Fold these 3 entries.
Entry 1:
Amino acid sequence: MKKAILYMVISTFSFTLMNAFVKYLSHFPTFEVVFFRSIGSLVLATSYIIYKGIPIMGNNKRLLLYRSFAGLTAMSLFFMSLKYIPVGTAVSLRYISPIFATFFAVLWLKEKLRSVQWLLFLIAFCGVLFIKGFGGAVDTTGLLLVLTASVFSGLVYVLIRKIGKGDHPLVVVNYFMFIGTVVGGLLSINNFSTPMGQEWLLLLSLGFFGFFGQLFMTKAFQAAKTTMVAPLKYIEVIFTLTIGVFSVWGYIHVF
């Protein structure tokens, strides 16, 4: 369990930085952002897989594809929501995903859940809303997008747990990034916006931070039960609030 906690700390920190940059790049078409976020991680994952001689096609191909499309849907909807609502609000709302993950784990994986865990989920989510708040009225479109993304994120956590240690974490990530690169690339062809200056660096950095976010999240869910790992996603609120403080001071202009 200690390893799972460490993995989730690294994962949530990586995703926090990625989300901050995505908000800054929200003027780009959604699937162009998906493409850049995916291709960077794909290059890193594929290179390491080839270097280590890991079977790139994996073993649980059907589950790997399910996880990839569920992840792509969650990622795309979340990125879309950032066009309508602040990143802090979107991240706060996405914290519902561990609740969906727990629900799916109980139904599908037959994991046991204590009554007190449901109470802790409720307290944790209410605490997130209390700390972060909604900052005024929440755009309905953004709200629906991020809530739907949360459902698919919860499904992703369970699919990773279902895959278990039958596949290397990098293979799981690589499947997801390959699907994201292909779909994102195809859907952005007719609506491609050419990056300028530092935007190239920011777009490419999405793949870097996203790679480590996905890799260590996968390791965490492979190391422990979904019902134990999913609540650790709430660690991200600490990092999000910290970056939010820096943005108020004028160092980061993404919130």
Entry 2:
Amino acid sequence: MSNQQHNRAVTVIGLGPMGQAITRTLLAAGHPVTVWNRTTGRAEGVVADGATLAATPAEAVEASSLVILSLTDYQAMYDILGPTTESLAGRTLVNLSSDTPDRSREAASWAAAHDAAFLTGGVMASAPMVGTDAAYVYYSGPGEVLDGSREALAQIGAPKHLGEDPGLAQLMYQAQLAVFLGALSALMHATAMLGATGMKATEALPELLATAESIGAILRAGEETPGAALDAGEHPGDLSTVTMMGATADHIVETSTTLGLDLALPLAVRAHYRQAIENGHGGDNWTRIIDSLREPRDKRRRLIS
């Protein structure tokens, strides 16, 4: 690694917890970092750690050839960089903000129109994990653009390039968050179920987290290569069936109703199994519910009741 690569200047725009963590990680790795944030008070901590605070977005962009964006969404990028597009030429924009795949593709075209290279990124780590061996980041866009910034970006987390399509990283990121947010809602619903009878969260969560942590092992035990049967269109019901899992979903709805809890989550889950049973797949493996998930919502709305 050359000193030029190691000491490459980087700009970070957006200083929420993630932006601050990225900035500190880059500083610790020896990169000069310029920062900008709408609320300047958020920059005080990273400036004390060695970052340089730019007075304007244009000054921030012009300070570095690599500009990392950590914002609420892609619209924030346009709001901040729109007035300073003349400064973007020749620079690499790496947008680590959350949004949709289509908006990522639109942003890549927008950047190209202003002679800037563009990478979409999805950080698979919480702020405290940034820069650790547990952190990784999905990227999509031109491979040579990632390679040109790999040393700096690798400080955030291990780069995983998904392909040239700018929307791929955002699609993977949203898919990962679907698992994450779904699990969080399920954990809170389960905690509310137990809490309704007086069990404290400090008692409930250790038991529930043990179940959440075991899901991967359970799925791997049932199939040597998870997903292989799905790709082959196979749903063998030798270990569990849609009917069996659907009965459990019924019981969760009934229990939640008795406890006076919100039913949005258990009704949605139950609808997946009811649709599969209605389609004649009660004897198939629970994975058969993917069929209804691939259908337009209006076809299964009547089952959520």
Entry 3:
Amino acid sequence: MDTPQRTVVIASLLVIGAELCFAGVSALVKYLSTAVPSEQLVFFRSLMALVVLLPWIWRKGPAAFKTQAWGLHLSRGVAGLAAMYLFFYAIANIPLAQATLVLLLSPFLIPVIGRVWLAEQVLPQTWLAIAIGFVGVFIFLNPVAAELSPIVGIAFIAACLAAFTKTLIRQMSATESSSKIVFYFSALSTLLSGIPLLWLGAPIAMEHWLGIIAMGALAVAGQLGMTKAFSLAPAAKVGVFTYSSVIFAALMGYWFWQEPITWHMLTGAVIITVAGYLAIRTRRKAETGGKVGS
């Protein structure tokens, strides 16, 4: 059954609002990184997500901890935490829009990982979308006209790790609920990121505490908004709006840090958005036997 147009509009607005929240998280990380060690930022980001899950844990009781996929949960926790560390480092050291756009490559990397690791079939249209996406990133970064920071490579590794974790989620979803997957990631990332604080912890000023709380609140609001959006409408109809985050990141970078916005950035962003739309539509057609409602 086709999704009503009004519902699609609401879901699209929720996705855009969620991406605005995520861009706000990145901006706060960039601001806080000048005074707060990244180890503390990663820990509190993970802790906030865990706190939000406490009502679910209370309601589920011991059932919240039952799992037969310990290895997958641990792999996802380590890879996801590493991606967070690397992405936070990239945000602190390169323009906000650059770090955000490179991380948006992760959806294009998932089919590649699925092909190499799980021997999954990848449609020719998907390979085309991936190629177009990388062309868009190349134009956005414009390495011919300006020397590219090696930290962009760190952001790319973060994107690869993020794609790997999403592939693991697909594997776990056969036996694990989404709530349990989120819980174990939040618990493991909080526990593991808390270890360095035993020797790296430092006092945090009051104004920075406010920033940390705002970072956590925006992250939770973004996650809730994104979850609600995809429960209302399929990704084929609203998923393309996830690329709005690079626009918000570019505007915030320009407003707060005077990071330039150039024509090649705009052109690259448009190309990667088109590529993302093609990838989403191709995946949706494959899942529905080639029939997608307009």
